[in-house]
Amino acid sequence: MAPRRTAQVAITAFLLLGCAFVLSPFFAAILFAGTVCITTWPIYQSLHRRMGRRNGLAAISMTFLLTAVLLVPMIGLAASLTDAAMEAVDWARTAIEQSDGRPPEWVKEIPVVGRDLDAYVRKLTHSQQEMRKLALQAVEPARKFALGLGGVLGQGLLQITLVLFIGFFFYRDGATIYDQLETGAQRLGGELGNRLLDLAANTVKAVMIGIVGTAAAQALVALVGFVIAGVPGALLLAAGTFFLSLVPVGPPLIWGGAAFWLYQQGESGWAIFMVLWGALAVSSVDNFLKPFLISRTASLPILLIALGAFGGVLAFGFIGLFLGPTFLALGQALFREWTAHDAVLPPVTTDESQ
């Protein structure tokens, strides 16, 4: 009997490893598709009821809706960002070639450090030809970085496309999949397993709504400020704010750069407006909106979000920007629930007679 049991375990382990090996290239897309489907499931249920409870029609309608919301804007962002990066590199090359080596006049006008910085740059540019040569050599790595950025965005588009394809089947068969997961959780952990499954679904939903909702709100508020101040490329900057909002001190890089550009153009008043708008409106959204959206789940420390965003990108690519914080928050919530459950277990007693 024992050899038969051992053979069954070995065959099962071999099959699981084989399945994991086959699905490993799509692991991130499958996880993110599940996360998106869990988050948007109430919308799918509404469509499902309106379409006569036809699973296939509701699933394909939901997939088209997500395509319009996720994929189409990303295509425009990828094209615009790549073109803008290449134009910036070309502008830098032209400016270096035409420069006489002296710093711009606006450097002196920088408060507190302007004059010292101007003197330091002039000292560095004493040998104009050598400095120009070094600057032109630095342009080529910048060009490669811009091309690499375009490659990352292209990879992100492919990942999002795969997520949408997988998501269609998750929507169509979602009820069956959840019943199977519930049965498995019941067999593995009993009542605790079911409770952890519900906690996982609620945490994923709340964290995704909190992260994406806060990012969208910050991007919208930033867009209004960019339009009012007359900053060019407002939509592109707002999209950058959306993605950088997942990283601590991310949005100030966008609205701070816009304020600096306005100051450089001689628009000191609008530059001050942009700084105030960014500090009081854009960055403050994160302080009250995210806690409100994630109010019913475990809190998300800044460190957790930062590690999740950076580590998620390294582990899963572009979609890891959203997937990383979600997984860390889910792990934190499950660990807290597990330890809280263990805390109420009766203490282990020993038999003194032995």
TrEMBL record:
<protein>
    <submittedName>
        <fullName>AI-2E family transporter</fullName>
    </submittedName>
</protein>
<feature type="transmembrane region" description="Helical">
    <location>
        <begin position="235"/>
        <end position="263"/>
    </location>
</feature>
<keyword id="KW-0813">Transport</keyword>
<keyword id="KW-1133">Transmembrane helix</keyword>
<feature type="transmembrane region" description="Helical">
    <location>
        <begin position="206"/>
        <end position="228"/>
    </location>
</feature>
<feature type="transmembrane region" description="Helical">
    <location>
        <begin position="269"/>
        <end position="289"/>
    </location>
</feature>
<keyword id="KW-0812">Transmembrane</keyword>
<feature type="transmembrane region" description="Helical">
    <location>
        <begin position="145"/>
        <end position="171"/>
    </location>
</feature>
<comment type="similarity">
    <text>Belongs to the autoinducer-2 exporter (AI-2E) (TC 2.A.86) family.</text>
</comment>
<keyword id="KW-1003">Cell membrane</keyword>
<dbReference type="Pfam" id="PF01594">
    <property type="entry name" value="AI-2E_transport"/>
</dbReference>
<dbReference type="InterPro" id="IPR002549">
    <property type="entry name" value="AI-2E-like"/>
</dbReference>
<keyword id="KW-0472">Membrane</keyword>
<feature type="transmembrane region" description="Helical">
    <location>
        <begin position="301"/>
        <end position="323"/>
    </location>
</feature>
<feature type="transmembrane region" description="Helical">
    <location>
        <begin position="57"/>
        <end position="79"/>
    </location>
</feature>
